[in-house]
Amino acid sequence: MAQETLNSESPPAAPAQELSVVVEKPQVTEKEPQPSAPAPLPEPEVPEKPAVVAVEEEAVEVEKPKVEEKEETKITQSVSFKEETNIAGELPEPQKKALDELKQLIQEALNNHEFTAKPEAEEKPVAEPEPKKEEEENKEEKKEEKEEETPAAAISEEPKIVTDAPAAVEVKEEDNTPPPPPPAEAPAAEVVVVETEVAEKAKAVDDDGAKTVEAIEESVVAVAAPPAEKEKEEPSAVVAPQSEETKEAQVPSPPPEEVSIWGIPLLADEKSDVILLKFLRARDFKVKDAFAMIKNTVSWRKEFGIETLLDEDLGNELEKVVFMQGFDKEGHPVCYNVYGEFQNKELYQNTFADEEKRSKFLRWRIQFLEKSIRKLDFNPTGINTMVQVNDLKNSPGPGKKELRQATNQALNLLQDNYPEFVAKQVFINVPWWYLAFNRMISPFLTQRTKSKFVFASPAKSAETLFKYIAPEQVPVQYGGLSREGEQEFSVADAVTEVTIKPAAKHSVEFPITENCNLVWELRVVGWEVNYGAEFVPTAEDGYTVIVSKTRKVSSADETVISDSFKTGEPGKVVLTIDNQTSKKKKFLYRSKTKPYSD
Questions:
Q1: Topology at the third CATH level for domain 87-113+255-303
Q2: Which tens digit of pLDDT belongs to each residue from 459-476?
Q3: In angstroms, rounded to a whole number, what is the distance separating the alpha carbons of residues 261 and 286?
Q4: DSSP state letter for 135
């Protein structure tokens, strides 16, 4: 930075730099498009790296230096987020354990149908306490009755001195096994009678031992027969509840419910792990908190009607407010939010005038996000996050109550139900009042979310975007070269990016072979420079051809200059940019050659 300021204050040194640039740049121009993706490192001119830092510094000087220092740390923190893996086998042990625990909780919830039967599960415990008390009291009374009956049973067992036949014992066992505990008590009392009657008959027939045995057998059989008949009758009353229980046991338990989010089941394969890791990271790997967040998200999606929302026709009035275009240098899709469109009073009234319209806007915004998410790759090595670019140029101020309400509502919904879908939040054309507004809502944002924020003033917005998004991917209205209806150039054609110092010239040379058609396009962010192009033949006796006469180009004239030149002799086309201002300029260009025959 110190070198840059010295160079800017010493214009007389500029002419020496012009000559060096003219000679060296033509060789670099063909090599630069290939390493343009890695960012400013391959650039021979080091000022580009400080330029991005200056973007953040100036944005903060306008709004407050403390915030600027935080932004720099936030950008460095965001790099660590990109290094996080979604492959379960590569996670640290604590994170693996948290993921396994979360899977267990979800599996139990699916088995118990907690995602669909949540309200019923909450109502039952409220009405059950009183019946439980009555059951406990009944159990205590039954215990007391049993304790009163046990002495009689003990006494009845004492006269069992008589040598009973084994048949009598077998009858008792058969009486006790089939019925439940209540009917088992009745036979016990009847057996006592049997035993007393047998004892009396045994005393009455003392003279003949054989007769006593026969009498015993007859009495036992005669008395034991009625309980057998009772057993046949009692099961009819007792079997009824058993049959219901058996029927319930025979009915197979319902299979675990299937719950999906963004088209991915909660428990299925590696894609499911990616979804669960988003919730875990949003809650700092606190398993219970992440599980509660998942349940709340599933419940909200059902209440909001997400699946039916995808098929709703909500119009296209807001297609210029929010749109997807291009990818950043790491392959994340980029979503642009243009709040300045709401300066249109008619659009503003149609969107935020009343609660019904604000609700429709919210549903449209959620629908747009859902459709964008469905296009992401949820494989562990895929890209499943996006970059958000928020253009605050001409956006309505904080006095717009309706917009503020809709924004806060959308912000809460997105943070609670769409965790870890943003790789970067870039705010461009930031006005002075926005940082104050950001401080108001920042307490409601997690530190992880705030660490992804980047702010840029209007003068540094294009440079800030180029730090994360290649110029060929940036829309032309934001300083890039991406335009609709492109024919000669596409996103696949890389752009070379050069910083021109104040009061300096920069030249670019495109070599041409015989029978060649050279096509190029260029732009200078902010323009206010002089531009010219000429063809210089290789032959010494050839004549220089002026392709484009040197002229001053302002920002209001045109955003992108496209030109071409055909020739049948070898040579080179030289483009010259003369920056006579006191500010650095960002120069973008690309070219291609096409063979042709006369």
A1: Helicase, Ruva Protein; domain 3 (1.10.8)
A2: 899 999 999 999 999 999
A3: 20
A4: H
Tokens encoding 591: 């070219």
Residue holding tokens 């110190």?
Answer: 2
The count of other CB atoms within 10 Å of the CB of residue 301 is: 19
Residue 216, both tokens: 């015993």
CA distances from 297 to 107, 140, 293, 420 (A): 17, 46, 6, 14
Distance CA 505, CA 22 (A): 8
DSSP letter string over 370-421? HHHHTTS--STTS---EEEEEE-TT---TT-HHHHHHHHHHHHHHHHHSTT-
**CATH number for region 488-593:** 2.60.120.680
DSSP string over 228-256: HHHHHHHHHHHHHHHHHHHHHHHSPPPPP
CA distance 104 to 494: 48
SS (H, E, C) 468-515: HCCHHHCEHHHCCCECCCCCCCCCCCCCEEEEECCCEEEEEEEEECCC
Per DSSP, what are the bridge partners of residue 595? 516
| Kind of pairing between the strands at 264-265 and 322-327 | unpaired
Extract the tokens encoding 517: 């058609």
pTM of the model: 0.65
pLDDT score, position 216 = 42
Measured CA to CA, the distance from residue 38 to residue 40 in angstroms comes to 7
Query: In angstroms, rounded to a whole number, what is the distance separating the alpha carbons of residues 45 and 61?
Result: 25
Nearest in space to 564 (alpha carbons), one of 596, 595, 593, 525: 593
> How many beta carbons lie within 10 A of that of residue 431, not counting itself?
18
The Cα 165–Cα 163 span in angstroms is: 6
Q: How far is CA 331 from CA 82, 334, 335, 450, 453, in A?
A: 12, 9, 13, 22, 19
DSSP state of 458: G
Q: Tokens for 148, please give them.
A: 């009163």
Length of the chain: 598
Q: Are 533 and 510 in contact (CB under 8 A)?
A: no
How far apart are alpha carbons 236 and 258 in whole angstroms? 42
HSE (side-chain half, CA atoms, 13 Å) at 355? 0
Q: How far apart are CA 542 and CA 539, in angstroms?
A: 5
When pLDDT is cut at 50, 70 and 90, the band that residue 135 belongs to is: low
What confidence category does residue 408 fall into, taking pLDDT thresholds of 50, 70 and 90? confident
Q: Where are the chain's structural domains? A: 87-113+255-303, 314-468, 488-593
Q: Which amino acid is located at 379 in the chain?
A: N
- pLDDT at position 436 is 76
Fold of the domain spanning 314-468: Phosphatidylinositol Transfer Protein Sec14p (3.40.525)
